Amino acid sequence: MTHRSQTLSHPSRFFAAGALRTGVHVVVMTAVLFGCTRSQRPAQPLAPVKPPSTMAKGERVSDNPVRAPGAPGAVVGSALSLDLRPLGFVPTDGFTLPLFSPDGRYFAVQVGAVPELSTLLARNGQRAPKASRIAMYRADDRGLVRLGETESGFVLGRSSDASGFLIESPRSDGARWIGRINWDGGEPEWLVQDSRVNAFGIFGPAGELAYSSREKQDRTFDLVVRREGTTSKLLGDGVRSYILPVFTADARRVCAISLRDGMLELASADPTSDDSFRQSLVRLVLSDRGNDETALKMLAPQGARDGADGADWIFFHPTLNTLARWNDVDGLRPFASSVLAFGRVDARRYALLQAGKVRMHASDDALAAASSEHGTVLLDSVAVPRASRIIDGAPSVLLVAPEREGARLGVRLLLARLPQLGS
């Protein structure tokens, strides 16, 4: 394990607008959503530290009106101003989005060559990605602090907690382990270490762990959940394969993609025990021509951290070409046309990437009807919004703009505007 700590200072501008409008939309649509078909590149070293710039700490802009829920045309949020704080540029493998801690303070990125598709999907024939590493960062008032990087051979996991993040390690004998690495580095703590292929791990809100597992000679995955010292399983029985699980926000249910003879289904169940898994299982057929690659594309825009919003699972719908919500009670609810990413701002506001801009909306009530003309513009360029934390007493949203060799990061603060004297 390599340990280095260095600060990347603020860039002179958050985004180069021309490059974003012409290039990054293509990158988001291909590398993030449809990037599984690609050529391999040789490993690339981490970029050198950029020289300091003279940019001020923040850029204050006034807001555009946001529409009130259920009342198109009504204006709310007039006492709001927006503060854009650039964080910096980070090299990545050009394919994998950063994995953030729950509060957005830490994140990890895959660097070097993109792991092969068989490795990303834990298929037979997977190999340790020896031309790839994982770099860790901390975001603070000075910008981005690079904390170090792992040795080669690990796949960046799908989930994290306040202390660290998950990795996966394809082994030379065909097995695959799931481990956890602290944000400040160190050797992996192996959470699942046996002779099986264990993949797609995710933490629950109270430390639960869900993952897919199969024997090395099998092609279908069982779904496994560990919680409070017990283990429960939903067996694929050699027919169905359960992959890419996501916990609901309260961990009462776990969702996963179910694959069977070309059929792609959404699945949801209570993971308390083996019996509750089987008896509570609800499935929804989404496609009759789906596979594990389709599933990976569906979940790439949101990941696991931002893929759960309350009881809902949020994913990219492969037929409707927009994000959709689903839970076992309310069913399938597509977003407005061509929504590519979702980020929760706070209990009553959320951000969408739609029509080349990031906009904030006031309530989920108008979610299906929200158009690209509504909402407060948080960024007039392409970026993936991610949930963040309270910063300087204000709600905030992370903004991740993928570029061809990395990602540019910033944070947008939602500040209450002070009343003028005499008003």
What does this structure look like?
With 423 residues, the protein is mainly beta. It has a single domain, classed as Methylamine Dehydrogenase, Chain H (7 Propeller), CATH 2.130.10. Helices cover 8% and strands 46% of the residues. The chain has helices spanning 17-33, 117-120, 274-279, 292-299; strands at 2-8, 59-62, 66-68, 71-76, 80-91, 99-100, 106-112, 132-140, 143-149, 155-160, 164-170, 176-182, 189-192, 197-203, 209-214, 222-227, 230-234, 241-247, 254-260, 263-269, 282-287, 308-309, 312-317, 322-327, 331-334, 339-346, 349-354, 357-361, 376-379, 384-387, 396-403, 406-416. The protein has a five-stranded antiparallel sheet, with no helix packed on it. A five-stranded antiparallel sheet has the order 2-5-32-31-30, with helices on one face. The longest helix is centred in the N-terminal third of the chain and has 17 residues, at 17-33.
> For this structure, what is the CATH class?
Mainly Beta
Radius of gyration: 21 Å
Output the strand order for the largest sheet: 1-9-8-7-6
Number of strands: 32
Shape: globular
**What's the average pLDDT?**
82
CATH-assigned fold name: Methylamine Dehydrogenase, Chain H
CATH architecture term: 7 Propeller
Strand content is over 45%
- Taken together, the total number of domains comes to 1
Q: Biggest sheet, in brief?
A: 5 strands, antiparallel
- The low-confidence runs, each spanning 5 or more residues with pLDDT under 50, are 3-78
Helix content: under 10%
Determine the number of helices (DSSP H or I, runs of at least 4 residues). 4
Structural class: mainly beta
How many angstroms separate the termini? Answer: 59 Å
